[in-house]
Amino acid sequence: MTPEDLFGTWTLISHQFVTLETDERREMFGADPLGTLVLTPDHRMIAFITANDRKPAVDDASTAALYKSMLVYSGPFRLEAPDQLVTTVEMAWHPAWVGGEQARTLALEGDILSIMTPVMAHPTIAGQTARGVLRWRRLSRF
After folding, report:
1. Number of structural domains, the chain?
2. How big is the chain by its Cα radius of gyration, in Å?
């Protein structure tokens, strides 16, 4: 896989987290999440994912729920080996990611891009480690 194979706009098909402790598959943003991934020819990326049933906040609790129902980060990316995408995070919904790197394993079959995260402690799943498994469909090429 080359960077050129990835350039374009992608829409999210599914986003699951598989917990290491129990092998439970959890739909992190519901059964039909919303998401856009953009990978540009100048090697920049942005990923934005939300649950599809978000409601406007009316109090502190619903504001906190909005934070837990989204994921966004952006920055320059590079390919390491043909199937490893590494993003240097310049901005993110979770400040702990800013200034670090996020590595993802990729598989591309036609216009379907599968992305798997390393096992990690996820900011919204207290006390458990999990691996993200995301599937994207290509919308356009650059």
Report:
1. 1
2. 15
